């Protein structure tokens, strides 16, 4: 029997997986489930997410405070979380978000004790290139991202080579950045001039100071 070995690329293994690719020289350490949620859950959980309390935080740039280009929310186990130099209290988990967290944990066997929500009301809302690396989430954290609402393009950029890999994250998609991803890659959801509707993204994260 003849076996044909193919060089691995970023091309998804099933046609329903919507990873786009460049040259395929490096592979991001992620698990991607484009249809993780059922149609009922993705609609219901989007509505429940929109009904939560959201706030537009501020960052200081060149000595001036400017609003971040998205709304944010923080839920989790009972602890305080340092974010952009401010101590924030995690609000108690809404039931649907705890269920989402539990399902993600059951899938990947990794533990997450808080969730940061990002709400992109229009295509002008965005998050720039960054890695999720600060002391409270520990070394080599896994970060799981669950998308609801309109599709936006999530970009991963390899720090060493500059290679970029794109994922179009539809409602109900789950993308888990595995240990090593934050150290070797940056990620972003950039502004778009295309007309896009509202999107909410939940990132489940570990927090090393939180009660287990
Ligand atoms: O909205 C997304 O898909 C990405 C969110 C993100 O980059 C973050 O919370 O660090």
Mind explaining what this structure looks like?
This protein is α+β, with helices and mostly antiparallel strands. The protein has one domain: Jelly Rolls. Helix content is 14%, strand content 34%. The protein has helices at 39-50, 95-108, 181-184; strands at residues 30-33, 58-61, 64-67, 71-76, 80-83, 86-89, 114-120, 127-130, 143-149, 152-158, 164-169, 174-177, 185-189, 199-205. Strands 1-12-9-14-7-4 form a six-stranded antiparallel beta sheet. A four-stranded antiparallel beta sheet has the order 8-13-10-11. Strands 2-3 form a two-stranded antiparallel ribbon. A hairpin with a 5-residue loop joins strand 10 (152-158) and strand 11. The chain is globular and about 40 Å long. The structure holds 2-oxoglutaric acid. Residues 116, 118, 127, 132, 145, 154, 169, 187, 189, 201, 203 line the site of 2-oxoglutaric acid.
What is this structure, in a nutshell?
This protein is an alpha+beta fold. The longest helix is centred in the middle third of the chain and has 14 residues.
